[in-house]
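From the methods appendix. Each design record in this collection lists the tokenized structure first, followed by the designed amino acid sequence. Records were kept in a plain field format so they could be parsed without special tools. The example shown here is representative of the layout used throughout.

RECORD:
FOLD TOKENS (224 positions):
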């Protein structure tokens, strides 16, 4: 049975779900947050140590300003109302991506990371304003500047995920089969599951089913 320490998720389909069910993309983002809470609980039950969630990509800035504002307000409210609960559950929050938001949100993110930094049950890596191509280019620049030998080990030390193990499992909801500039280096040997359901419809049961399938896959890593 395959060990599973790190699950990465591309939470796709919130906007489509909102338009189909509530005639509002923003309603889909709100519903998607409830799905996040369910998957956090399921991850703890599965004794997973790292959960990386693709919340906002560098490309998402192209969306309407009103939608971006709603998303960040949603995140601010989540941090204000839920971070104490996450802390009590021994959950650590880490942000990957560039903290290039409003002063209020930047402060909340820093405070949330600091408050939970010693927690050990589950680490949630929230990918905000994250793009893997930028991460890789930036890592190569830093590696070159350091004058260290260009090799895999040294490059990893300049990635935003340098202290995080690579995910064994990547899940993308929303019936879309692409990586969308997410953890391109880190998922080189991840098992990838594309789920038809839109993110707000994705349940703990769906999650556990994928994990069960993953654990029974024969993983060869290039071998026979």
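DESIGN:
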């Amino acid at each position: 049975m395959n060990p599973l320490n790190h699950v990465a998720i591309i939470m796709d389909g919130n906007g489509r779900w909102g338009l189909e069910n509530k005639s509002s993309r923003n309603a889909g983002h709100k519903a998607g947050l409830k799905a996040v809470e369910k998957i956090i609980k399921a991850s703890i039950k599965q004794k997973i140590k790292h959960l990386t969630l693709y919340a906002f990509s560098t490309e998402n800035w192209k969306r309407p300003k009103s939608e971006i504002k709603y998303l960040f307000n949603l995140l601010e409210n989540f941090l204000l109302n839920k971070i104490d609960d996450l802390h009590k559950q021994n959950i650590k929050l880490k942000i990957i991506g560039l903290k290039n938001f409003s002063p209020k949100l930047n402060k909340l993110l820093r405070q949330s990371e600091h408050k939970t930094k010693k927690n050990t049950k589950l680490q949630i890596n929230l990918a905000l304003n994250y793009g893997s191509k930028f991460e890789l280019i930036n890592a190569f620049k830093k590696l070159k500047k350091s004058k260290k030998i260009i090799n895999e080990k040294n490059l990893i030390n300049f990635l935003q995920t340098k202290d995080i193990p690579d995910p064994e499992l990547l899940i993308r909801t929303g019936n879309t089969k692409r990586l969308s500039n997410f953890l391109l280096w880190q998922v080189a040997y991840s098992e990838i599951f594309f789920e038809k359901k839109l993110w707000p419809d994705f349940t703990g049961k769906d999650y556990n089913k994928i994990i069960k399938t993953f654990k029974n896959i024969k993983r060869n890593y290039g071998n026979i």
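APPENDIX NOTE: The first strand starts at residue 6 and ends at 10.
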